Amino acid sequence: MGLRAVGALHRLAEQVEAVSVALAREQGWTWEQIGDALGMSRQSVHAKYGK
């Protein structure tokens, strides 16, 4: 039961992150700024969320 809750929270966090990245890009944030905020490289963020 606990692991299902963890899985659900993980999926929710991924969705929130994706929406937040999209909003940041709309507001003019660079991939580097987003990566810094998420503790990721700009390349990793772009690979995950770039279109």
Automatic annotation (TrEMBL):
<dbReference type="Pfam" id="PF13384">
    <property type="entry name" value="HTH_23"/>
</dbReference>
<protein>
    <recommendedName>
        <fullName>Helix-turn-helix domain-containing protein</fullName>
    </recommendedName>
</protein>
